[in-house]
Design brief:
Layout lengths: L7 E5 L13 H15 L3 E7 L9 E4 L23 H12 L5 E4 L4 H6 L7 E4 L7 H13 L4 E3 L2 H4 L9 E2 L19 E4 L8 H11 L3 E4 L5 H10 L5 E3 L5 H8 L4 E4 L9 H8 L4 E4 L2 H6 L6 E4 L4 H9 L6 H11 L2 H21 L1
Parallel strand pairs: 1-2, 1-4, 2-3, 4-5, 5-6, 6-7, 8-9, 8-11, 9-10, 11-12, 12-13
Bound molecules: uridine-5'-diphosphate.
């Protein structure tokens, strides 16, 4: 990539948590990976994020203010809620002041405000939406943005896009990871992994039920987002062979995951992507997932894992019994071919270039 084509990109991170906290879920890793790869290619990247955010090797502008609540905990028709001193509003006020220094501003927040503000900015705004449809306020404002600023809405997958009325307007951008951080393991131990935020939409109880039936130990890793939900699972399955290891760094997490026979993915919702699926594949770990949403687009059924009937614990158990059919090197290969940082960088660079070009035309 030549530097005379280099772009100046201001990323505005999720406002539900600090980068590195895990509260933002997979979008935290996505922000890091896009920023890292485009920085490597010579583009100028700065990330604006709540105070306390940490992002290796990329400049972060830390903004004070109160965090947004998460959209997953809202009802579809709920009104828009913002704290009085909202970090979301403060981040966008910062972006407004510096906008002329940048070619494209990139919004990673699943919030109404950045979409609403788009027509008021001189600098074009790209919106990366990291979840499927959850709240009417966002559906509505994003649909208006898609109509007024064609090509500026990006999503992970087609299944995610299809949850929105403006599916046809979405750019499908997928995800990708730094494969060098994940080590291949050909000889796993007799145990299973579950990764993600501990929250009801992730359906952890089904993985715990499958662990209990099969007797295979389940290692659980991820941000404790809903302590009551976790306590209920512990009470409902007191003798299941499960262990919660906490929220681990990528390095620590892959050390655990790669030793497992499979990753179980049990989302109740339409998972937009599921970064954890490609992280497991990169370690050579097959993915057993419910056949809906992002994981259904990632897992090659019978080749790099199994897609089972959604919400069926028996389906999980049946797939666990067939794990010997999977060649773990095929899992690593799929991650290398489809989910490298290079592939991710190509797609996002192309998208940002097309949006930057729209500025020139204005
Ligand atoms: N994760 C982590 N440490 C852990 C468990 C999970 O850093 O111990 C990260 C993982 O790398 C992934 C994110 O948590 O990026 C979960 O993202 P995913 O896309 O699977 O789901 P989301 O939370 O966005 O719904």
């Amino acid at each position: 990539m030549t530097t005379n084509n280099s772009l100046k990109l201001l990323f505005l991170s999720t406002s539900v948590g600090q980068l590195g906290s895990g509260l933002g879920g997979g979008v935290e890793l996505t922000v890091l990976n896009i920023a890292k790869e485009l920085h490597r290619r010579g583009h100028k990247i700065t990330v604006v994020a709540p105070v306390g955010s940490v992002l290796e090797s990329i400049p972060v502008i830390e903004i004070a203010g109160d965090l947004q609540g998460t959209a997953q905990t809202q009802d579809y028709n709920d009104s828009i809620v913002m704290p009085a001193d909202a970090v979301l509003a403060n981040m966008w006020e910062y972006a407004r002041q510096v906008q002329d220094e940048w070619d494209v501003i990139v919004n990673f927040a699943y919030d109404w405000l950045p979409f609403y503000l788009t027509p008021f900015f001189r600098t074009p705004i790209a919106h990366f939406i990291s979840m499927g449809s959850l709240v009417r306020s966002l559906d509505r404002v994003a649909e208006q943005t898609a109509a007024q600023f064609p090509g500026t809405i990006g999503v992970y997958t087609a299944s995610q896009a299809e949850t929105f009325a403006f599916a046809a307007e979405c750019q499908l951008l997928g995800s990708g990871i730094d494969l060098s951080l994940y080590e291949f393991c050909s000889q796993p131990q007799s145990k299973l992994a579950w990764l993600g935020r501990i929250a009801p939409e992730k359906g952890l109880e089904d993985a715990v039920a499958a662990a209990k039936i099969t007797g295979l130990p389940l290692k659980i890793m991820g941000k404790m987002q809903d302590e009551d939900y976790w306590q209920k699972i512990c009470a409902d399955y007191p003798d299941a062979p499960v262990e919660y290891l906490g929220f681990l760094t990528t390095t620590q997490m892959q050390e655990q995951v790669r030793q497992c026979r499979a990753l179980l993915m049990t989302p109740r919702w339409v998972e937009a992507f599921g970064n954890v699926a490609i992280e497991a594949l990169a370690c050579g770990v097959p993915v057993i997932a419910y056949a809906r949403g992002g994981p259904a687009e990632i897992v090659r059924d019978g080749h790099t894992g199994f897609l089972v009937e959604p919400d069926s614990v028996n389906g999980l158990v049946g797939a666990i019994a067939r794990l010997d059919q999977i060649d773990r090197s095929a899992c690593r290969r799929q991650a290398e071919v489809e989910y490298s940082l290079e592939a991710l960088g190509d797609r996002f660079q192309h998208w940002f270039n097309s949006i930057a070009a729209s500025k020139v035309r204005q």
